[in-house]
Specification:
750 residues, globular
Length: 750
């Protein structure tokens, strides 16, 4: 039957639309008997049930593609409208009545005819949520369960729990979803704490994103069997680098050090050694530790804590390249010429003893001429300055090839002992941070080249070319702001975008143009196929330098050991590992995005909590985005909030989509991207993670006529304007993901 189904699908796919009826299929397959008729009819019924084939009104059969059916992930906004993105086309909109029990983030099969913009969910293929987190609040004389997720708060729930469970006001709980639909049936699974207890707010977000700070018992037991010192046996068949000057450079508060660097100046360049913690030596394939690391995918860094991929006994202990102790590593040794080109490289298992644990702050001071610090670390001789020169050459060569530097910023939120935010500011990065980033990228490129050309199963970090549609939109917006970008006729190349960014680097609008261009980029992800990294202008790239924090790096180490160091030549095992890498890459991409979503949710919540104490205060900022419903303003401390168009009460403002401007109809006052502006904090909602700004009173002198206000209210109810509003909001989340990824140290996820 399966073979017959494949034949039917192939026939339908390759024949004209008026030649796909049952009789056409029978004749086309050369089937003429009555038993053939029954078999084909049965196969078509099964294909219809499986939603692989659809029947039109005239009884013509269609494949998924012919019927306008596709698989996608549904995003549902706060008003309940759903969106499924399509490449190079507008997103499919899905009304709440056509969502077929789908929830935000579900993988769905959706149908939308080519000439329509609205579609329907045919089937939910994969659920994003299996639980709901919320708290009990008084409603009248009873307590009612209210989900934390605003997108679920308007849904009907039936909440079940054990007889001995007593719900109390403010109690935070995790509920398993027993039944989707209306009403959703929930079962109270565990109590987290109470909503105002310190740390419960962040813990709720972590658990809601399926990130559990606790490790399973079998993992805890396995960790107990792992020694915290290396033995002579461990050092067998490893290159001894313990007598070389090798250092780690990390942030002041870092506790896990998974990369160390050493450099030697030679004639015509440098010998650069990047040694990475050999986590694969301790995390054996299919062990409880390995399975848990796979499920987690990566470490998650939220405001006041880290949820590690590996238990602290490994991440801060035996796998961490702590100073003055021997550690097992894998070293990528590169010969770099004075132009910054890697002329040759070798990769080998090693053992090191870190000479010093250096911090970015101290290295930056040494580079800036701090004599006391230079004296304190004089035993490192000229290593830091040689490392700077080598890294600068590598960066210059990469830039010459066309690598794009979006120069993003990262928000730092400082909190007190109870988790309350006390300050927000941008993370300041200097030469030391760029040095380490350059060294890590060089190692990642070298290992990727090695794995690809030796045809070793691996997981690559890929970044595909931006879509033509998004780039055309950016070109239009940029030209509207007076900055021309000329793209090649045969494709989009990173050096074109790099030259453009350099040409606008010194103008006030640069941060906004850089952010908008970043919005056009595709999301970097993991894949078993090496298709290159557009943003870095590299044809081969992977993540090798952070196996403590990222599962794909651990797999790269494991494959190096299996097929290079131990010369495994089992072809069947190689084929199996290729298939496993495909699954692992897809899962790692999902978990990375999930981890980022949790980080952003915690950041938004703490920013809103911080700004609650500043309601009524006025700040300087810059307009970072313009939409049909208002403008986003970013303050000097990186806090971003929305000035809603309804609060611009000195005129009636119209959104100019070609120039991304808001223009007053009467006074012609214009707000545009990149414009400096003063704003007053109107509101901050911790639960929603939102900040609302308004203009200071002195900027709002004109009161619109009553009929103008009515016109404004009417337009705000317009469906198309509303659709654009909500979709723009969804896109901003992805933009921030890319911007944060750009601003963070490479090993954390570039």
């Amino acid at each position: 039957m399966n073979n017959l189904k494949e034949q039917i699908l192939e026939y339908i796919e390759n024949h004209p639309k008026k030649k796909r009826k049952l009789d056409d299929i029978l004749n086309g397959l050369g089937l003429t008997s009555s038993s053939d008729f029954v078999k084909v009819s049965q196969a078509l019924l099964e294909l219809e049930k499986e939603l692989l084939v659809f029947r039109a009104d005239d009884n013509q059969y269609l494949t998924q593609k012919q019927a306008g059916v596709m698989v996608g992930v549904i995003s549902i906004n706060k008003a309940g409208l759903g969106f499924v993105d399509r490449e190079d086309r507008d997103s499919i909109k899905i009304d709440p009545t056509d969502q077929n029990t789908a929830l935000n983030g579900d993988k769905v099969l959706v149908r939308c005819k080519p000439w329509q913009t609205y579609g329907e969910v045919l089937k939910v293929l994969e659920r994003a949520k299996e639980h709901v987190i919320g708290a009990f609040y008084p409603r009248g004389s009873k307590l009612k369960f209210i989900p934390d997720d605003e997108k679920l708060q308007d849904k009907l729930f039936t909440v079940k729990y054990d007889q001995d469970f007593l719900p109390l006001e403010g109690m935070k709980v995790v509920c398993k979803i027993q039944k989707y639909g209306t009403p959703m049936v929930l079962y109270v699974d565990r109590v987290i704490g109470y909503k105002d207890d310190p740390g419960v707010d962040i813990l709720s977000i972590l658990l809601d994103h399926d990130i559990n700070p606790e490790f399973p018992e079998d993992v805890v037991e396995q960790v107990k069997t792992i020694p915290q010192e290396i033995s002579e046996e461990d050092k067998q068949n490893r290159t001894d680098l313990t007598h070389e000057t090798i250092i780690t450079i990390d942030g002041d508060d870092s506790k896990d050090f998974d990369d160390a660097v050493g450099v030697e100046k030679i004639e015509g360049g440098w010998i650069l050694k990047v040694s990475i913690a050999d986590v694969s030596h301790y995390v054996k394939e299919d062990s409880p530790l390995d399975k848990e690391a796979f499920e987690r995918g990566c470490s998650t860094y939220v405001t006041d804590r880290v949820v590690p991929m590996l238990p602290h006994e490994l991440s801060n202990g035996i796998c961490s390249l702590n100073p003055y102790v021997e550690r097992l590593t894998i070293t990528c040794q590169m010969k770099v010429n004075t132009d910054g080109k890697i002329e040759e490289y070798t990769i080998y298992p090693s053992v090191i003893r870190s000479t010093e644990r250096m911090t970015y702050a101290n290295v930056n001071k040494i580079l800036d001429g701090d004599e006391p610090l230079q004296q304190q670390y004089q035993h490192l001789e000229n290593l830091i300055f040689d490392l700077r020169d080598c890294a600068d050459a590598i960066r210059s060569y990469r830039s010459h090839k066309g690598a794009i530097d979006f120069d993003g910023t990262e928000t730092v939120i400082e909190v007190d002992g109870d988790g309350h935010p006390t300050d927000i500011h941008a993370r300041m990065s200097g030469h030391a941070e760029r040095m380490i980033e350059d060294c890590m990228i060089a190692a990642n490129v070298s290992v990727a080249n090695y794995m690809k050309w030796l045809d070793v199963p691996s997981i690559y970090r890929i970044h595909e070319t931006p879509t033509a549609k998004k780039m055309k939109e950016f070109v239009r917006i940029s030209e509207g702001m007076g900055h021309k970008l000329i793209l090649g006729k045969t494709g989009i190349y990173p050096n074109e975008l790099q030259r453009y960014l350099q040409s606008v680097k010194d103008i006030p609008e640069y941060p906004v143009l850089s952010m908008m261009l970043l919005r056009c980029m595709q999301k970097a992800r993991y894949d078993a196929n090496c298709v290159g990294h557009f943003g870095l202008a590299e044809s081969e790239y992977l993540h090798f330098t952070s196996p403590i924090r990222r599962y794909p790096d651990l797999i790269v180490h494991r494959m190096l050991r299996k097929y290079i160091f131990n010369t495994n030549e089992n072809l069947q095992q190689r084929a199996n590992d290729i298939e496993k890498c495909k699954v692992q890459a897809e899962h790692a991409s999902i978990r990375e995005r999930n981890s980022q979503d949790a980080e952003y949710a915690c950041q938004d919540m703490k920013i809103a909590e911080y700004m609650q104490a500043h309601i009524g205060e006025t700040f300087k900022g810059i307009i970072s985005s313009i939409t049909s419903f208002g403008m986003y303003v970013e303050l000097e401390n990186t806090v971003e909030g929305l000035v809603r168009i309804v609060n611009l009460d000195d005129d009636y403002y119209v959104f100019n989509k070609d120039r991304f401007e808001l223009v007053g109809e009467k006074r012609k006052k214009t707000y545009r991207i990149g414009q400096p502006i003063k704003v007053t904090v109107l509101d901050a909602n911790k639960n929603a993670g939102t900040v609302d700004f308004g203009l200071p009173k002195k900027q709002s002198r004109f009161t619109p006529r009553k009929d103008a206000r009515k016109k404004d209210n009417f337009k705000r109810r317009d469906t198309k304007r509303f659709d654009r509003k909500e979709k723009t909001s969804c896109n901003r989340k992805d933009t921030r993901s890319k911007r944060k990824q750009s601003g963070r140290k490479e090993r954390h996820g570039r």
